[in-house]
Amino acid sequence: MTARLSPPITTRLTERAGRVLEFLWSGWAGLAALFLLAAIWQAGHEAYGPFILTSPQETVAAVWRLAGDPAAWAVAGLTLQRAVTGFALVSGAGITIGLIAGYSPATMRLAQPLITVLMGVPPIAWIVLAMIWFGGSDATVRTVIVVSALPVVFLGAAQGIATRDRGLDRMAQAFGAGPVRRFLTVGLRQTTTTLFPAQVLALGTAFKVAVMAELLANAGGIGGALANARINLDIATALAWVLIAVLLLIAVEYTLVHPVKGEIDRWRRAAQPWGVKR
Amino acid sequence: MSVLSLAGVEHAYLGRSVLKAVDLTVGAQEIVALVGPSGCGKSTLAHVAAGLLEPKSGRIERRYRRHAMIFQDPSLLPWATAAQNIAFGLRLSRLPRRQRADCVAEAAARAELEPGDLAKYPVELSGGMRQRVAIARALAVRPDFIYFDEPFTALDVALRRRMQDVAISNCADAGLSGLFITHDLHEAARIAHRVMVLDTYGAGILGDRSLPGRPGSRSDTQVQEWVAAALSRDPLFRHIHDVDERQIA
User: Fold this and answer.
1) A132 CB near a chain B CB, below 8 Å?
2) pLDDT, tens only, B201-212
3) Structural domain ending residue among the three candidates B99, B128, B143
4) pTM, 2 dp
5) What's the rounded Cα separation, in Å, for the pair B184 and B103?
6) N or C: which end of chain B has fewer CB within 10 A?
């Protein structure tokens, strides 16, 4: 018998290539939105003049100038490194605690008020504390990222487990799966519904908080560069750095988060009507 | 020889007794239908017998090699294709991939699934097809005992009949044993060798009746006449259409 559980490798590769092309094609819609934003920006520039708001063209030129400077690459690389390591830390910690809380109502009851406290303390207060503890180092930035993004990752993971379909657990148990295998085959996969939006939010927070912490803690990176631009009243460079921070976030989100999400959510696409897919 | 026997089984749900003094046996190559009014604890009894729930007291002996279970809800993994769903039990028993594929194809054929449907996700399948996938998943692990937990209740009449035929050809005719939970006496009379009635309040098995002939060989008239006679003349079946909305899972 020549039965197969999955289609042959060539079919799978063409299917994957198709999905990638479809995804790239959907980029036109994204570009349209970005150009709309640029148009509004341009209108603002024409209304208030270059000193308040430089034009998008000049900003792009400033980005281009910075792109030719190796020192600028080092600055951006530093922020990128801090944001991504901070994100990795917060993902690891948040998902672990969240999964435990999802399975154990007692942990959930203990953790919930702590999460509320974490959310209530403004990030700026954490920056001040972290500066005192760690000075202007990577640890300061990472600490602030972890503290600011932890609640959302925790809740994403905990909700995913708490709202899982218990019928599937029962089914897996009927087929002889113990608690660990039930978690691996049935539970973990169901958390992705709530965990992925939380992860996207956490990644955005990581970049925003990294730049803010760098600026306030005088820790170099894009935040440091923004502080220098502010001193020199160099609006074009300031906006250029903002643009670079956004580009870095987009790059990380579309190379790290979305491919994984696309792979995991394949079954969801199967249910979507044609008009939603494209 | 019995392959499943329960003696004096009691189960309590949050302190309230649901099943009391249940004695039940299923013989080798025998399908036993368990009927009873809604909410009398039939499903709970099946879950206790299959080991999904721990009984408060009593003895359960399982002398079969391997069991499988078919639920009222198909309980398919939404993120896995039909083929991967059918292979779920095989994956849990750590069967090598190559052999898994053969088992899946064979089980799918027995549940009358088209090969083209195997690559589809559950969202792309109709209710009847999903239940066929659930049946194939149960058959794929090559069980010698199957628990049916009201598997066809949610399906319409024509589809239910087709599914019953699939169950008859794969279980009763293939020499498997099974416990079939249902509240439909008609269904019980088509599928089973023997019908058991559970008390309205779960207080033991009230009695059982053997059906004439083999499950696959009974004509519709025979089934209908048996059901009509049971409902009108047999005191054992007097309360099976009583309704008590305690709604125990």
Assistant:
1) no
2) 888 899 999 998
3) B143
4) 0.83
5) 32
6) N
